[in-house]
Amino acid sequence: MKITQEQFARLTLEEAGRLVAAAELSALDLVEASAARMDLFEPAINAVVTRTDEVSRRRAAESAASPGAGGALRGIPVAVKDNLMTRGVRTTCGSRILENFIPPYDASAVAALQNAGAVVMGKTNMDEVAMGSSGEHSAYGPTGNPWDPGRITGGSSSGSAALVAYGGALAALGSDTGGSIRQPAAFCGLVGMKPTYGRVSRYGLGALASSLDQIGPLTRNARDNALLLDVISGRDPRDSTSAAGAETAAPCLPGIEEGVKGLRIVYDPAMLEGDGLSPVMAGGVRRAMNIAAGHGARIAEAAVPLIKYGVAAYYIICSCEASANLARFDGVRYGRRCGGGDVWDVYSETRGRGFGDEVKRRIMVGAYALSQGYYDAYYLKAARVRRKLSQEFARLFLDADILLLPVAPQFPRRIGAKAGVMEDYLGDIFTLAANLAGLPAISFPIGVFDGLPTGVQAVAGPFAENILYRLARTIEKNTRLVGAPWTLAGPKEAK
Ligand code: GLN
């Protein structure tokens, strides 16, 4: 049996796995269908920075040649964000400064996918160095939202979200420092998981802010997402922040059909009344609550007042860590070298031409906030807010299992409709807290409004990803995503 690009786009990971295991489809059939779908959509969407068709075909052929071998993802086309190192394949982090960088090794999460048999089809577009929430800060151009190509996908995992939403790959990995998996997942009608800090190895992830970064899956349904997280979770001696809980945490797929009966789900009514929040997004949270209640969850109110300080704390901490992490790109050891005079000329030309505006802004903010005399006023204060927020969550999860909240306050705007820098930062208000506290958080679709998908977010205690998936799965069974791009024959026109 061959498969058309249209049939391919609707497959779940589990269906594809069964077809390959039963030898009804070969890995090569899947790779060809994935490539055909990308040929059709990429001109309108720009989700992929580097395609790896030839390497993918070779891998697919290898997998076909050893039919006995194979893990859960055998022969299945996936994609990874372009800040995950891929051996022998260009890895740009969305930046000019790494335009020609070819890593000599694979990130641990990429290796885990490949060990399970997955075929990586390409490297997905992203905001430069994962800074941003729109996908417009990529040096390789913005990514169009497959639901309406004139709109942003969200970011920074813009390409991973768009590619999975149009069905170019069956799943993708992103990274999330302050919302970069969850927000584009919500804007593109997907499930996106930001795992507990330390559950997935960060080895081989181009760092934005090392104490906040986590890698996680973007998929079209909850089961696929859980399957993928189970594949990439685990302790890794090459990441010093890899947590013991990564070994002992409950796997996510086995219990996913258990439902939400008896789960204690809380929400903060004050959070749903804020000025800047679209009533549709607040309505999405209420709808999720009602569905969960109808399936036996216990709903209660709770106050989480410190979440609103997350923006101020995050943008200091993130910028401080980023300014330190990016210091290595000097044109000597790392980064495409520019300038030719003395060493200062090389530094300033390399960094001046290699980095975009948002990256420069954060390096300057971070270096300033860490400088002598300002460290206490900015960095230390932000670190204290972070600790208080973690304590607030720890108290909350003594009496509750899950906190429900919006993902983004508004619908995705049109590409190029200039929002101010602060507006974009403020749009992260609901997603930053989970990173600051190191907690798992999932975003899942709750419906379609005026042709655009809307999402809801759920946060749980450390390593409780499994209950987040039970909720997402329950909601999914009671939600229809009319007009989803993965069901279309070809790309939509920008409205
Ligand atoms: N939007 C946030 C930022 O710009 C989060 C980005 C991320 O999660 N990588 O920093």
Q: Could you walk me through the main structural features you see in this protein, from its secondary elements to its overall organization?
A:
By secondary structure, the chain is α/β, with parallel strands linked by helices. It is built from 17 helices and 13 strands. The protein has helices at 5-10, 13-21, 27-45, 53-65, 108-115, 158-166, 182-187, 222-232, 245-248, 279-294, 310-325, 343-354, 357-370, 376-396, 421-426, 432-437, 465-476; strands at residues 48-51, 77-81, 119-124, 144-145, 148-152, 171-176, 191-194, 214-219, 264-267, 298-301, 402-406, 441-449, 452-460. The strands form two sheets. It has an eleven-stranded mixed β-sheet with strand order 1-3-2-6-8-7-12-13-11-9-10, sandwiched between helices. Strands 4-5 form a two-stranded antiparallel sheet. Helix 10 (279-294) links the parallel strand 9 and strand 10. The chain is globular. The protein starts with a helix and ends in a 19-residue tail after the last helix. The mean pLDDT is 95. Glutamine binds next to loops.
